[in-house]
Amino acid sequence: MALSRKSNTLYIDQEALSALALLKAGLLYPVTSLMNKKQTLEVLQAGTFNQKVFPFPLILAPSGKVNQELLSSVSLGDKLILVCDNKEVGHLIVEEVFEINPKERVRQIYGTDNLQHPGVKSTYSRLGKIAVSGEYEIELSSILERKAKIDDAKKRLGAQHVTAIMMGANPLHRAHERLIRQALDKTDLIVIFLLKPFNSSDLQYELRCETLTFFVQNFLPTNRVVVVPLENSYIFAGYNEVVIDAIVAKNFGCNRLTIGQNHAGVGMYYEQNSNKSVIDRLTGLDIEIDIASEYVYCNECKTLVSTKTCPHGQHHHISYHSDSILELIKLGLLPPAVLMRKEIAAIILSKLFPDRFKNLEKLYYDIMPVTGLLEEHTEKDFYEELMKLYQTTSLT
């Protein structure tokens, strides 16, 4: 409900609300509540919480002059109304307030406090200098529905082995399809967590969800794939991303997490005279991490291959870089079928460029083979048929 301004109101944004919902629903276990100062210092020192991995303190420290004034004056047991986008979303009972260093906070998450880094800059701008801990209540129906959807699928299949894939599908391309299929070959059930960032110039979540759903419903065994949204907030950023992904996947009921070998959070580091990766840090977290190969199209093999199995050099490989494929789409160009399934490209282009053609029916009948019958065609139909013409090779 809309809310008038009150003296006990703490204003939070959608990213904080998302993190609070995950925490309250038990999806960030071993952490089950906002950390106080003592717990914060323990996590900073050990990188664990209750003998289980957790990469950084989970705190609430919203920015803004009003918030800072409020948190500077509250007392133990005070009830704060949580407000997001001018709507009351819950409340918090104050247990403790303590000062934090925002630059240190972003360094904990990203590994750097350089404000030239876009993620650091964004997160730093939304951090205050005072954190608050305490029991709180917020709306959890949507996140509990997602968990129930996964639980129902596991029960229906009697699934013993469940694999999670965190995916942006921005856009969904052939390498994504291969990754999903290969993971499906080794598990009972796949849960695709479709990432839903809060600030992005990429394809809208609804459009990415539509393309992924189309692929699942038409080209995969639908009873073995579950797609659920996952708000991609700041806690998933930086070099700790894989750790948080694994924690969330485990708490959603998955026992394997599949990631690509070029995942941003799988970098190597040197510690105690040995090379390690972030995977070595998953202390006490009972989940298997499967690092999938990088897939490319080889113009010698004439198919999609793993870089580990193809004998041909990089100059024969077509790579699947989402940002480059997305650039083609945003320019209104139809990506080659070797990069993206034509039906997927057609869905996206028809939504991004509605009513693009002045006389679609005339254009369609002028350049497309038809049955001779009078039919109505959509822009999506046109793109699909146009791709078929692109794939004609007798004159090329």
How do the strands and helices of this protein lay out in sequence?
Blueprint: E1 9-11, H1 14-24, H2 37-46, E2 48-49, E3 52-53, E4 60-62, H3 65-73, E5 79-84, E6 87-93, E7 96-99, H4 102-110, H5 118-125, E8 127-133, E9 136-138, H6 141-157, E10 162-167, H7 174-184, E11 189-196, H8 205-219, E12 225-231, H9 241-251, E13 256-260, E14 268-271, E15 274-277, E16 288-292, E17 295-298, E18 303-306, E19 317-319, H10 322-330, H11 342-352, H12 360-367, H13 379-390
Helix pairs in contact: 4-5, 8-11, 11-13
Plain-language structure description:
The protein has 396 residues and is α/β, with parallel strands linked by helices. The protein folds into three domains: 9-138, Roll (Sulfate adenylyltransferase); 141-292, HUPs (Rossmann fold); 305-390, no CATH class. 36% of the residues lie in helices and 22% in strands. Strand 10 (162-167), helix 7 (174-184) and strand 11 (189-196) form a beta-alpha-beta unit. The model is unreliable at 1-5 (pLDDT under 50).
Q: Which characteristics define this entry?
A:
396 residues, alpha/beta, Sulfate adenylyltransferase, Rossmann fold, 3 domains, 5-stranded parallel β-sheet, 4-stranded mixed β-sheet, 13 helices, 22% strand, disordered N terminus
Strand order of the largest sheet: 12-11-10-13-16
Low-confidence stretches: 1-5
Output the CATH class name of the largest domain: Alpha Beta
Number of distinct helices: 13
Q: Could you give a short account of the major beta sheet?
A: 5 strands, parallel
pLDDT averaged residue by residue: 90
Shape: globular
Percent of residues in helices: 25-40%
Radius of gyration: 24 Å
CATH fold naming of the largest domain: Rossmann fold
The portion of residues forming beta strands comes to 15-25%
CATH superfamily of the largest domain: HUPs
Q: How many domain regions?
A: 3
Q: Give the strand tally.
A: 19
The assigned structural class equals alpha/beta
- At CATH's second level, what is the architecture of the largest domain? 3-Layer(aba) Sandwich
End-to-end gap: 62 Å
